[in-house]
Amino acid sequence: MTNTVSPNGGKMRAAKAFGFSLDEIRVVEDDAPVAGPGQILVKVKAATLNYRDLAVLTGTYIPGLPLPLVPASDACGEVVATGEGVSRFKVGDRVTPIYTQGWHDGRPTPEQRAKRTIGAPLGGVLQDFVVVPAEDAVHAPSNLTDAEAACLPIAALTAWSALSAGPMKAGDTVLLQGTGGVSLFALQFAKMSGARVVILSSSDEKLERAKALGADVGINYKTTPEWSMAVKAATDGRGADLIVETIGSSLPESLSCVSFGGTVAVVGFVAGYETKLNVRQLIGPMVRLQGIAVGSRRGFEDMNRAIELANIKPVIDSFYPLEDVAEAFKYMKKGSHFGKIAVNL
Ligand SMILES: NC(=O)c1ccc[n+]([C@@H]2O[C@H](COP(=O)([O-])OP(=O)(O)OC[C@H]3O[C@@H](n4cnc5c(N)ncnc54)[C@H](OP(=O)(O)O)[C@@H]3O)[C@@H](O)[C@H]2O)c1
């Protein structure tokens, strides 16, 4: 069906950042978009937040980004209109737009990585309707609610790509850092693949919750700041075969506990972008360092099949209405969440 008529009389709600501060996010009325040729118009049902959004909203991720900006990258919604020539989706389908628009398989082009990511520099998903090319969305897994499917585009796909960086096999040990969105998906995918999971957290209570999800060993990085020793002890001295580095500045500590020939998938920077490395930590133990930038549409579709088959359910910490989205970001900044923070539209 081709439909170029705007819904809701052409108007919609949109959360916009008018400055680089969480106090400058306001929900305003805006013009609803219309699907052009090759595009789908999606009624956003739910969105989820990522650490990246905080970095964007405080101006540290892409300094000089033009404002106002609709933040956030991850959403699930229903196709309400299709533009001319669209056959990939029909009205009524549940979809999730992909984060790096245009990256379908293989390696992304520099152009895609620099300019085609939703939520900055492209506009985000915290609005009632979004338009994306039909080629740049995937079907939502049938076993997930809208909010659960909205957790997938960045957090889940990044975890999936990081675990694919190994390769990881059953019986390997995977080290995860923190109990945020990426780490908890990595925990679920690693257990699905038969790996042993060692997880770090600032909170003993969160470590217990991670164990309830299948984590084998929990280490409190506050009370055990030199946690590499504890990881070695938990692996009979071998170290972790695959480390999903979300802390960033702890890379030297990770290199102290990666196994001989193991992999560190470098994903995040929650404690800072910079660190000092001794290259001998890489050379002697023949460690592989692999940067991760979310993933391609192919990876997303592979992951969704696994999510359906294994009936993986994303861990959602809390739900906020669109009107309270600034509070949701402030809650995320506090860091007491376990898993994802969702926004219902
Ligand atoms: N490269 C990519 O493709 C990609 C994709 C997604 C995310 N990322 C990055 O990966 C990181 C995690 O993202 P996320 O969305 O999972 O974040 P998140 O949901 O906010 O979780 C981050 C978790 O890290 C732990 N943490 C926070 N500050 C810490 C510190 N100073 N030292 C050690 N641990 C700390 C906390 O766990 P506890 O409360 O359990 O201590 C926190 O819940 C971010 O840097 C994000 O930008 C990168």
UniProtKB/TrEMBL annotation:
SUPFAM superfamilies noted in UniProt: GroES-like (SSF50129), NAD(P)-binding Rossmann-fold domains (SSF51735)
Q: Which CDD domains match?
A: MDR7
* An example Gene Ontology molecular-function term: oxidoreductase activity
- Spell out the InterPro entries in the cross-references: ADH-like_C, ADH-like_N, ER, GroES-like_sf, NAD(P)-bd_dom_sf, Zinc_ADH-like
Give start and end of each Enoyl reductase (ER) domain: 20-343
This chain belongs to the protein called NADPH:quinone reductase-like Zn-dependent oxidoreductase
Species per Swiss-Prot/TrEMBL record: Rhizobium pisi
